[in-house]
Amino acid sequence: MVAGVCRLALRATLLLSLLPACDRPDPVGTAAKVDPPMASVEAPVKPSEMPPVDVAALESEMVAKHGEPQRARVHRGLAQVAALWRPEDGDLASFVREHFIADPAQLDAAFGRLEGVFEQIDGHTHEIGREARRATDVDLGPLLPIDTLLAAYDPGAHVTEDLFLAKPAFVVLLNFPLTTLAERDAQGPTYTRRQWAEVRLAGRFARRVPGEVRQAVTRATADADLYVSQYNLWMHHLVDETGARPFPSGLRLISHWNLRDELKGRYGDPEGLAKQRMIIKVMERIVTQTIPAGVIDDPRVDWDPFTNKVSAAPPETIEADAPKRSEPPRLDGAPEPDVRYAKLLAQFHAARAEDPYVPVAPTAIARSFELGRELPEARVKALLEQVLTSSQVPGVAKEIERRLGRPLEPTDLWYAGFKAGGAPPEHELDAITRKRYPDAQAFARAMPEVLRGLGFSAERSRWLAEHIRVEPSRGAGHALQALRRGDLPRLRTRVGAGGMDYKGYNIAVHELGHNVEQVFSLESVDHTLLAGIPGNAFTEALAFVFQARDLELLGLKQPDAASERERVLNDFWQTWEIAGVALVDVATWHWMYEHPDATPTQLREAVVRISEETWTRYYAPVLGGSGTPLLGVYSHMISYPLYLSDYPLGHLIAFQIEEHLQGSGKLGEEFERMASFGAVTPDVWMTHATGAPVSAEPLLRATEAALASGVDSK
Ligand SMILES: [Zn+2]
């Protein structure tokens, strides 16, 4: 999220990308239709073939056999197994008798065996997937029709369910502790490394969602995604009260991303404000669903978003590449029947069906915060509110107002006038990088030198370079991790016929940051069960540390203080913006859980109300526009629910890591120390890395310093 172009892992999708390496969500299972699992030991579901297991009697029997000191372990292990055991898994009692391990030496041996075998399973499965995708990811010449099919093949899809069916998963659950995030937060700081590794070992089996339930989630997400992907507006067909068309022909924008970016792009346009206000009105009508259905992705219809009048577009204005449609244009001005909110409700119902299968996190909200990002919801909300109500907001707002020469209004939520500058012109940089890196292998050979330039020792630089394989990328470039020792992360970089241009170089340095983190977090971590780091925001922050030094590595000067100031203020404003959007997303999910039988219309009313209230509370005092539902416009809310909080968190984490590394003066050593700690919780990781848990303070401190430096005050 810090850098625009970045693809981390083979199977990383937008939805999965923030999950820690050892807590990936259950893949789609192979199981045939099954009964729901037992929600708890006390309320077992009646199995169809097996006689019901008397768990209490089994517990007494096991304690009698292994001794009173084992009671707590027996109780916990039995509950964990029984919660996910299905009738077709067979005789639970005899499994427990056979596989409960009381002897500490035997337990150590089993732990070691599982750690070793899981590393091999994960590592080799990952390699198979990497090779299946090789032709699509690496530039090997023209693609074959079969390559897209191979790329969609996921050899890891059924691994977790297979481990349940073959029973190793139940041996883990019988003998090692599942934990809640609250427990990890309370006790994590004093866990031994072995305890952390056990937490990750068991956490892998925290959920066992039946295949058809997972597939329903996938379908709901794909359906919402399709709806969002077709939600385009043909901007030339927006007309104002004089009948004028402020936007050029052919401009087709997807909501909300392109609409927002078009709005941002209009800050340099002398006529920009009227266009921005028009875009804001369009966005409000998308949220309230008062937008006429006939104007969505149809340039045959003209629309005045202020009066909401529609009319047939004059034939000469209709773009040649308009979607081909057999039906006539809709000119009745009628809105969609709350389709946007029906899609979101479908996501909710599909996600809620998973609840009984994840005893440690039995709501989609809990799974998002506690299993996904591993930061408690209350803490994330507090961090977002800290930014939203920060005393830096009025200062930055005043500076924007002064630059614009007018009072702020809702459109300035997306102010885009903070611009870093000071770098040499791009064509000069292109010439330097093309000469230095004529092909991917030239970059590979230069890696030790690049790493020394960043502050790694000669020995470390050589060792790192030996552990990274460089390959020519088909796309813009990405870093692909390895999941077992002995396998090597890949740095894929795009090099044109004339050599590596500056953009490609800038991306390659960013990806190298990922690769270095990947090498340390696999090779230098004491337990492979802890390989990795807490999540994507962390690896992005570390990669950014490399990327921000790219000019220096070419022997040029890094951007000056004024440029750095612009960057900080821009990041602050973006964090402030998206923090409110994230709060709306989370509040909407709470409302759905509180109203599980709501209709799409009721959900729309709730989202509009939540958006308006959030605006009135945090944004109206700065931007006016009291009561606008604008914050509900993000398409993520519909297609990637509960994801939005990761954006503001990503900014906070990046500032915290940067602040520490800048202050340390020992970039190489500190980077290694941070990246070798492994996939513990974000707060424990950050405390080890910087001395404090995840915090908004570094961003706020940087913003305060930027405002105080006031280079352009008059
Ligand atoms: Zn990245």
Contiguous runs where pLDDT drops below 50 for at least 5 residues: 1-48
Q: Roughly how many Å is the radius of gyration? A: 27 Å
Bound molecules: zinc ion
Beta-strand residue fraction = under 5%
Q: Helical region count?
A: 30
Distance between the termini: 34 Å
Q: On the 0-100 scale, what is the average pLDDT?
A: 91
Strand order, sheet with most strands:
5-7-6
Helix content: 40-55%
| Shape category | globular
Structural class: mainly alpha
Total beta strand runs: 7
Structure description:
- The chain has 714 residues and is mainly α.
- The chain contains 30 helices and seven strands.
- The protein has helices spanning 55-66, 71-84, 92-99, 104-132, 134-137, 145-152, 159-165, 168-175, 181-187, 193-203, 211-229, 257-265, 272-288, 339-352, 364-373, 377-388, 392-404, 426-436, 440-454, 458-466, 502-523, 536-547, 550-553, 561-594, 600-623, 636-639, 646-664, 667-675, 682-690, 697-709, and strands at 232-234, 252-254, 301-304, 309-312, 469-472, 477-480, 490-493.
- The strands form three sheets. The protein has a three-stranded mixed β-sheet. Strands 1-2 form a two-stranded antiparallel sheet.
- A hairpin with a 4-residue loop joins β3 (301-304) and β4.
- α27 crosses α30 (697-709).
- The structure holds zinc ion.
- The site of zinc ion has 6 residues, from α21 and α22.
